[in-house]
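Supplementary Text 2. Reproducibility record for the structural model of the 228-residue chain.

All settings were left at their defaults, and a single model was retained for analysis rather than an ensemble. We include the record here because the model underlies the residue-level annotations in Supplementary Table 4.
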Amino acid sequence: MCGNNMSVPLLADAVTVSGNEKETAAVIFLHGLGDSGFGWVDSLTEIRLPHVKFICPHAAKIPVTLNLNTAMPAWFDLMGLGPDSPEDELGIKKAAENIKAIIEHEGRNGIPPNRIMLGGFSQGGALSLYTALTYQHELAGVVALSCWLPLHRSFPSASSGHTNLPILQCHGEMDAVVPLQFGAMTAEKLKTIVNPHVLTFKTYRNLPHSSCPQEMKDVKEFIKKHLP
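Retained model, structure tokens:
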């Protein structure tokens, strides 16, 4: 191994779920608002593959407008959770650069971008989508759970042009936080950015703003397919 985790702030205290063989691929998974990387360790441990490591960084605490400026772990500020809500453009772009720094670090340590997948839940999934679509190199794929595409009006022009980027988008049909309709609108927007055949949009009956065993099974199959 070479490279220094301290040079990539988000890696300094990130949680890692390791494979039990030589790790030739990585999934960088981003938690949702108010959570931490620890919140996904159990679910990711259950679906881990021998050659894949999961990296779960923690967002810093910042005041969140949507929650009356209460400070909590957040990748960027949120003003609302709808397609017409104002957005923290500078915060989103800065957060994306921080995630890209993790990808670059992994590349220096032997795992190239085409062996790296981004994933996340809610705000973390949103950041994963934005980061992957604007990154200069094509990644192995994106797992986008219960989320949306930030700064959606800037696409497709903001895209790096990797139209074959595989995307698994999952959403609970009973989601009261990020409504299914917002997820469906996101899926339609994504079809204008990537080739529709590389996008899979799955919904889950009776699932609120959360995850479920079937969803995680689908995530595992997606990772196995695109990070063999």
